[in-house]
Design brief:
heterodimer; A: mainly alpha; Non-ribosomal Peptide Synthetase Peptidyl Carrier Protein, Chain A; 4 helices; globular; B: alpha/beta; Peroxisomal Thiolase, Chain A, domain 1; 2 domains; 3-stranded mixed β-sheet; 32% helix
Chain lengths: 83, 410
């Protein structure tokens, strides 16, 4: 998967776990929590969906890497580039 | 500190398979309109069931619906509707003085079954088990979701009481008001049970699941050809207040909780026993300080099972020994709404205080002689001289009995 495809995949997951949110104006370099109503259970949902859809494991120590869209793509790119 | 013990109903919020507010529900009861349909359920295929069609997005965001449970959603809908009906504005009252007391038959079956069903796709690997399972399945879930949605900070919990739970939610709410624990009780019952295949399968394997070519005719209490329970979802929550408080804010009053009783058969896991039901009705009337002649209307619990209905009829004949209240049944329209049943069935009869009309039990084509009772209202509503006092029966598995008496406030 390319970086752009990974970004789209993450946005797709967020659109499903936060269906009331408007994602059109989202800023890649700003923390997701600062832009959207997301709590720790939502981040666990993102981790779960990455596991279910792409077989990607995000260990608990790495959860902070999912803070923003940009950091998520950077973190996931080497783990999803083969997909 | 003990406060005034007189407790009144000042608001009603409900969803039933044939109505999403009291006016529509009552109108359909008087028009003899059933709300039973067919649904597909995991592993069981098609079954007859009662489904509610309220708009969940009226009071919840999509995310709340995704995260929460159906029982929680039903409870949230009913609470908002009841508060609005009671003309209570959450921004003008102390939210810490509101208690949420919700009767449930069971909770957690649906969510656990769904998890296991979904897990099959992942080879039953538990790393795919949802982290939402815990908060969805704790027994206080339906009441807790209400507090989160509405910012209510008083006590909340559910009362697990099989199919006697709707009455018991109301009884418990009245008790908490009498004790001065809260100023407003949101009380009644909810059920999401139709989303559990296990409940249908269990009833079927007990020989107690209703079946009929026409789902509208599947639930037929007292009929010779009845063959079991129609499982339904639903909810009914009341705003209860101490009489003095209700009067001081000039609240509309639907009725007064006049008496109640709860007891146990101590007999069987499934089968009811009329002796316990008789004692429960007698005890409720005694607590209300009234005699059988004072009861104008009895809402029966009867679910349409071959074994259960005659037991209750026997109990009513014995408890009323010569008195002849009008008798009806609401499950024939909406099926068995389980934890909501007692509360929903009471709601259908409350308007009788004003219009003196009693809705009938429907689908009664051939009366089982064992279920014959004087003044059983059958297939057509009737106008009666007065309805000042209603006795509401609600019984459940493990021999739990609850009887609630509500009288007209005047």
């Amino acid at each position: 998967m390319t970086k752009e495809q990974i970004r789209s995949a993450i946005l797709q997951i967020i659109s499903e776990i936060a269906p009331d949110e408007e994602l059109g104006e989202i800023k890649d370099d700003v923390r997701l929590r600062d832009q959207l109503e997301l709590d720790s259970m939502d981040f666990l949902d993102i981790v779960m969906e990455l596991r279910k859809r792409f077989g990607v494991e995000v260990p608990e120590d790495d959860y902070m890497e999912l803070a923003s869209l940009q950091s998520s793509v950077t973190y996931l790119e080497p783990r999803m580039s083969h997909l | 500190m003990m406060k005034s013990e007189r407790v009144v109903i000042t608001g009603v919020g409900l969803t039933a398979p044939n109505g999403n507010n009291l006016a529509d529900y009552r109108s359909n009861l008087l028009a003899c309109k059933s709300g039973i349909s067919r649904i597909e359920t995991h592993y069981m295929g098609e079954v007859v069931a009662g489904v509610c069609n309220y708009d969940p997005l009226k009071y919840q965001k999509k995310k709340e619906l995704r995260r929460g449970t159906r029982a929680g959603s039903i409870a949230i809908y009913c609470t908002h509707e009841a508060m609005a009906n009671a003309q209570l504005d959450l921004d003008r009252i102390d939210r810490s003085r509101i208690g949420i007391y919700i009767g449930i038959t069971e909770h957690g079956n649906v969510e656990t079954e769904n998890e296991i069903h979904s897990l099959k796709e992942y080879g039953y690997d538990l790393k795919f088990w949802s982290h939402h399972h815990n908060p969805r399945t704790v027994a206080n879930n339906p009441a807790g979701e209400v507090t989160i949605n509405m910012g209510i900070t008083g006590p909340h919990y559910t009362l697990g009481a099989a199919c006697a739970a709707g009455n018991i939610g109301i009884i418990h709410g009245a008790q908490m008001l009498s004790l001065g624990e809260v100023d407003y009780a949101i009380a009644g019952g909810v059920s999401e049970t139709i989303h559990s295949f296990g409940v249908f399968a269990s009833f079927r394997n007990e020989g107690a699941l209703a079946h009929h070519p026409d789902p509208l005719k599947a639930c037929r209490p007292f009929d010779r050809d009845r063959n079991g329970v129609v499982v339904s979802e639903g909810g009914c929550l009341y705003v209860l207040e101490r009489l003095d408080d209700a009067l001081s804010r000039s609240a509309g009053i639907y009725g007064e909780v006049a008496g109640y009783a709860m007891n146990s058969d101590a007999f069987d896991f499934i089968l009811p026993a009329s002796e316990g039901q008789v004692r429960c009705m007698q005890s409720a009337m005694q607590k209300a300080g009234i005699s059988p002649e004072d009861i104008d209307l009895v809402n029966t619990h009867a679910t349409g099972t071959p074994q259960g209905d005659p037991q209750e009829c026997r109990a009513i004949r014995q408890a009323f020994h010569g008195a002849t209240p009008y008798i009806n049944n609401t499950k024939s329209y909406i099926g068995h709404t389980m934890g909501a049943a007692g509360a929903l069935e009471l709601a259908g009869n409350l308007p009788s205080f004003e219009d003196s009309i009693v809705h009938p039990t429907i689908n009664l084509d051939n009366l089982d002689p064992e279920c014959a009772m004087e003044n059983l209202v059958v297939n057509e509503p009737i106008r009666v001289p007065k309805v000042d006092c209603i006795l509401n029966n609600s019984f459940g598995m493990l021999g739990i009995n609850s009887v609630l008496i509500v009288k007209k406030y005047c």
